[in-house]
Amino acid sequence: MELTARDYPEVRHRLRDLSEADLLRAGHRLARLDPDEVLRLHPATPVVTIAITGHGTVAGIVPSLTAELARHGLLLRPHVTDFGVHVVELADPGSGLHRSRADLALCLLDATAVFEEVPVPWTPADVARALENRLRLLEKLVARYTEVGAGGLVLTTLPLPRVFPAQLVDHRSKAELGARWREFNAALLRLTERHPVLTVLDLDPLVAEGIPVADPRADVYARAHLSPGLLAAVAREVGHLAAHRAGRSRKVLVLDLDGTVWGGVLGDDGVHGVEVAGGYRGEAFRAFQRVVKQLGSQGVLLAAVSKNDREPVERVFAEHTGMTLRADDLVRITANWRPKPDNLVELAEALALDVDSFVFADDSAYECGLVARRLPGVAVVRLDADPALHVPRLLRDGWFGAAELTAADRGRVARYREEARRQDFLAGVDSIADYLRELDLTVDVSAPADHEVPRLSQLTLRTNQFNLTTTRLQPADVRALLADPTALTLAVRATDRFGDNGIVGAVFARRVDDVLHLDNLLLSCRVFGRGIEEAVLTTVLRHARDTGLTAVLGRYRPSAKNAKVADLYPRSGFTEIGRDADGTAFRHDLTDLADPPAHLTLTGTLGGPPS
Amino acid sequence: MTSLDEFLALVGDQLGLPLTTEDADTPLDDLIGWDSVQLLGLLPVLEERGGRALSLPAILEADSLGRLYDVVTA
Question: Could you tell me which residues of chain B have a Cβ less than 8 Å from any Cβ in chain A?
Fold first, then answer.
């Protein structure tokens, strides 16, 4: 496969559907490209710097990691530390790792590090002591990284290779070693509760898939203590983590129905003839539906797009007693005879989401191929005739990865369904103005509470369209802003006659002398076009004037997705004052302030009237 | 694996390196884009092609692709 710097924007599409071996070969080629050359030719390519360190030889992960990031359209800038120096690299603020200002630091740990510190002969008690020391050291390194590190820190649990318990001849000692080892890994995983910068990848589930922990020859001769297969699996997880941090998590799972959600062909077999429970294949479809429902409960929007007549499809969801998935679990069911790519585009419009945030699963190779070709940004999960394989295929990639769930995730389906009802309501009123008046909208602009920090961070990570500068903030970044007396950080909430939308927007600004700099302004795409953006800007401008400031500066930094807000500032009374590679700068002199839209009520600590 | 050229083509394809016959005698340290860690990934591929186990120490000791070819075909 020819993969050059010039081709980089196309690379992610060429990596679709490659076998693990071919993906690794492509990774070797991509790792050879000069990131600066790719950026010179394609300056908009998002770059992720990952520092890679660990106990053994860890450079072997670079080709896999390069390929995995490329699958998400990201460009890897790797920084690999020397052999055996991970402690110093993580601890010393002047180390190469810290100077790389990496977005992520990946520290690959393995059992050898522990067993090098026990005497020979050893007992489980010796290993327990070494594990305790290792845990204390790691916690110190994590705390240190929090102080001086630039981005997130990723550690791995330590799988226990059989060669260690197998050296013990009695079962009581084997059990003691196994228990101590797992206590260490559990404590390592629990560090994430106290350290927000930290992610710990649990390698046990990867090893349980049948991936060997180490290759004995590479382990001894090259001190490569983790097998190429395990490194590739870790690289996949890190790829999804990097994609999430870069705002590229997927939001919607679109499912075919016949052969995917249930067995058989609805048009032939009838509403009660499809297989969804009972029988060999029925149980396989039931298992798949349970997994889909589980994803939906965590904020993944579920939709069905099927080539069928509408009425029998609705009847299966409503009447078939064996169905696990119900119509309420789905934001929309599309059943018609149009090409599926057209239906996906229309669904994206209805949800006000980008089709690039979709994952599409279908058992038909034809439909998968058509969607992949027409909509290259959609992640396609190719299922086939054996429904027992649907679950592992769907879960092979962590497309919907998130750092932590927020309250907004759990209620997301309900809100998008409310949105669908709003749209029906819209069809029943004469004009947008009437609609907005009858919507009974209240907008609240206030400082966020601490528990709302994850939601604000998530807005910066998930919002692509109404995002003036596309600056992504991790929860720790938002907390730092809340602690900064010169920063003005605001949460925007909206409520209307259909329900509470929760936090739908955010303002990130800071005061410099007597000028307010609007660093970013975001609004969830669900609530565009209702005057909320005007209300928020008016609030911020009034606040600036009332606190004695002389001007407000704003910036629009174009991205692939945010063209619709290019004219937000000029529309709102700002004057353009400059244009450079970083976008367009605007200024408002606060002499002439517009009133907020009359159809909505403003509340909150900043939105006044006093409440 | 019958010829040196076939061997170079296989290694080049696996690692994405444009190798020619002249590269056979170049010290590996001087080969542009070469990293000894890559030998670990190459080992299973070479063993599968040759249908027999190879000695990793002998492979790690080879200082040029030509010497590596000698180990693989010995």
Answer: 13-17, 33, 35-41, 43, 56-57, 60
